[in-house]
Fold this sequence. Notes:
Nucleotidyltransferase, domain 5, five-stranded mixed beta sheet, Dna Ligase, domain 1, globular, about 350 residues, six-stranded mixed beta sheet
Amino acid sequence: MAKGKIGIGVDIGSSLIKIVEFEGLPKSPILTNYEVKKLASEAIVDGEIMDRGLVINTMKEMINDMKLKNKKVVISIYGKSVIVKRIQMEKMKRSEIAESIKWEAEQQIPFDVNSIELDYAVVNPDRPDGKMDVLLVAAKKDAILQKIDLLHEVGLDVKKMDISSFATNNIYEFNADQPKGQFISLVSVGFEDTSISFIDDGVFMFTRGNPTASKKFVYELQKRFGITEDDAIDIILGKSKDKYNNDEINAALYDFVDSISISIERNLTYLTRDKEHIDKIVLSGGGALIPGFSELLAKHFGTKVEIIDPFAKVSIGEGIKANDIKSIAPIIAEACGLALRAE
């Protein structure tokens, strides 16, 4: 039996709910349990729960199937209720930042400061102009409470809450050996939203959500062939590709890759340090598994593109088929990053 603490990560996405359980935290995590279930279309839109009953029943089924004994979990939040913004502040002592951050939030965040929870991280304390870069995080209190209440209703207690992109970065940092000086983009392609983040020399610098995601590719296939969403997803998964014109499928894929590439390039402009070249792009989320996507993205940027491996340094427990779990690794990466945060 694995020693150490138990961590459970719950990632409630727009099309899938993912729950993973680690033992052996913090130094030697082992995946001991996991479950992934599909949600009906439009059950969750842009992070907001539209069909509460369906989500609750689905999660109760998952918890029952997993036979979870530990009910303390770490969850994520994303969507319009969350803003992560990189700001510049006058250089000051860390003890003074907390006093100034609320005033900065009032100037920078388009929410009533009394209706949000605030957090921050200094990501570049030594700018040449004497200032410092700070990652400011704001989340609406009502969105936080909605998630907590939902988890309570299914019988789980929220131990911690994290931003989705931070959780993905967490599992990436744990598993990857990062050479000094590299500029890396983490691109998590979900069904309704793509999160684009940048790491500069091992420091998490910036993250932003974008509406161009896997759903765009699905919709384009639906439009071209006059088919249902499920039929389009089957094409993407390679289940029925031979039934349709391959040139049309490739054309839709090229358009999708162009849209994602434009989103990445636009987000580069938010960085204060000019970067002409991304050393590596790391893909996660279900979109990472789209055949041909990573290859086309690599060609567009002229750089290495790899799919995240949340199990490079995380062991896979007995009774779990390694091939099965690795086939969905990028899909459950965020949940794995959340589970790590439980320690």
